[in-house]
Write a structure and sequence with these properties.
By secondary structure, the chain is α/β, with parallel strands linked by helices. 43% of the residues lie in helices and 16% in strands. The strands form three sheets. Strands 2-1-3-4 form a four-stranded parallel sheet, sandwiched between helices. Strands 6-5-7-8 form a four-stranded parallel sheet. Helix 4 packs across helix 15. Bound molecules: 1,3-dihydroxyacetonephosphate (13P) and iron/sulfur cluster.
Length: 299
């Protein structure tokens, strides 16, 4: 199936919008109506008029779109496109920590399940985590599931940020080591290094810029050559936006779950309206409150 055929099919299917994350395959980026980071996609999801959203990303992103649009049809082209980090925090562990640290405010990374979101005070993404935590009254924060992002916000805010679980991580980002960073610096001496805050603390500390994927796009204009320490498709995205700049992946880090979305599967989604994302009403209502609190604190 060619891209042209999918585009035609999409035109035929009125009332459908395709949202895609920055890590999606280049051909998916080409058929998407909107591409962005987790924060941009969740905000975009609140503005959509179309009846159907085809979400090219992983489970928690499509769930967030559904929570924000309970009356719309939200489809994910592959049900198995699941972020492994999102399942690293269980409701049981969260409940246990909430009891133990009853004075703490609970900030959860958007990369988590809807059930956990329903127990949070506020949701954040890597783009707004530190500014949201700065705005909260409490100096004690329960933060999950990413312990590396917890490290980043602890350093930036000076607050007591307790990671739940202590070992929560993204397998793609922790595969990027300091050795990869050093090798890239030697190979490209004129390049600056940008890293995602899901990277290990020692990698964050040696990078010139630590940023969400959306912030990487905004800040790349400040220099002509960059080593990019995140999922490999980010280089494609940056090169599309800045064709005259140079971007080098520090490592060939691939999120296999993001890559489960293919053009063929998007076509099937459009034709057969599969696979529908559903979130139980009571969970959705409570999770929505925590997501809306994020929007409130982001503005
Ligand atoms: P961004 O919000 O920076 O796009 O990150 C999402 C993600 O899953 C990174 O691995
Ligand atoms: Fe999850 Fe990591 Fe993939 Fe992002 S890159 S979706 S955090 S596994």
């Amino acid at each position: 199936m060619s891209l042209r055929e999918v585009r035609k099919l999409k035109e035929k299917e009125e009332g459908v919008v395709i949202l895609a994350h920055n890590y999606q395959r280049p051909e998916i980026q080409r058929i998407a109506d909107f591409i962005g980071d987790s924060l941009e996609l969740s905000m975009k999801a609140t503005e959509i008029e179309a009846e159907t959203i085809v979400f090219c990303g992983v489970d928690f992103m499509a769930e967030t779109a559904k929570i924000l649009n309970p009356d719309k049809e939200v489809l994910i082209p592959d049900r198995n496109a699941r972020c492994p980090m999102a399942s690293m925090l269980s409701v049981d562990l969260l409940t246990e920590y909430k009891k133990k640290y009853s004075e703490a405010e609970v900030v959860l990374y958007v990369n988590t399940t809807a059930e956990c979101k329903a127990l949070a005070d506020v949701i954040c993404t890597s783009a707004n985590a530190h500014s949201i935590i700065e705005k909260l009254e409490s100096d004690v924060i329960l933060f999950g599931p990413d312990a590396n992002l917890a490290h980043y916000v602890r350093k930036r805010t000076g607050k007591k940020v307790i990671p739940i679980p202590e070992w929560g991580h993204c397998p793609v980002h922790v595969s990027i080591g300091v050795d990869d960073l050093k090798r890239a610096r030697n190979k490209y001496p004129n390049a600056r290094v940008m890293a995602h805050p899901e990277c290990l603390p020692e990698v964050q500390e040696k990078a010139d810029l630590v940023a969400s994927t959306g912030q990487m796009i905004k800040k790349a204009c400040s220099h002509n050559e960059w080593v990019v320490l995140t999922e490999r498709e980010m280089c494609h995205r940056l090169k599309t936006i800045y064709p005259n700049k140079k971007f080098y992946p520090g490592k060939d880090a691939v999120c296999v779950n993001m890559k489960k979305i293919t053009v063929e599967k998007v076509k099937k989604s459009l034709e057969s309206h599969v696979h529908e994302v559903n979130v139980p009403k009571d969970i959705s209502k409570r999770a929505r409150r925590a997501i809306e609190k994020m929007f409130e604190l982001t503005l």
